[in-house]
Amino acid sequence: MIKNFSAKLILIFSLTIFFAGCGNSDSPEKSLSEIQTALEQRNFEKLSERVDAEKFFSQTYDDMTIELAKNYEAYQKKYPEDPYFQHSADFLKDYNFTHKDLHLNFLEGVKNAYFEKLPEPATPEENPYAYVANEFEKIRQASTAVVKEIEIDGDKAVMTVEMQGDSSIRGQFIGTLNFKISFDKDKNNNWRLNKIENLDELTPPLVDKAEIVWITFFQ
Fold first, then answer.
1. In degrees, to the nearest 5, what angle opens at C-alpha 110 toward C-alphas 104 and 78?
2. Which of 32, 84, 186, 215 could form a disulfide with 21 if both were Cys (CB 3.0 to 4.6 A apart)?
3. Does the global pTM surpass 0.70?
4. Exposed, middle or buried, 114 (CB in 10 Å: 0-12/13-18/19+)?
């Protein structure tokens, strides 16, 4: 079950922070551009200038747990073979929050493997962190993003970004997803990625994709 939920989390984080942007003066678009550059260069220090990864992962974990529980009965009917959805919404929430540190520690291992550029192992069992980190990179390379809209209100901005997969197998798997992500200004007046604002819309299609990952790699 740990691998199951971690796969869902990793997929969402992969699809969320691999956006591209542009811009000259500081702006949400420039923030996204620098995030992408940091990921391309595997430079965690540069990434940290634009997003608090630990806070972002924790917030997304909590928000996603709430969304999964909210529609638990629908997932239970849709995925009867998945033990993760064969209990109750209250069980799911209790389980996720009880094991939150364990799940986030797994993601921390993936993050470290990614920025340390660990080579891809022959099998997931050999080094699950490095295996997922390399899948993370393949997803990044198979996707592009277009900023559709930006709403700025003082020190907060909400950006709508369309993510589009390419013609590769992973690109087709990603398909098209629309994210609303928010940014806040820090004490130095720079924009920093804050959270995903539309997880209620994204969770159903992301769960569908995560189920494919789980069936393919973890059953």
1. 65
2. 32
3. yes
4. buried
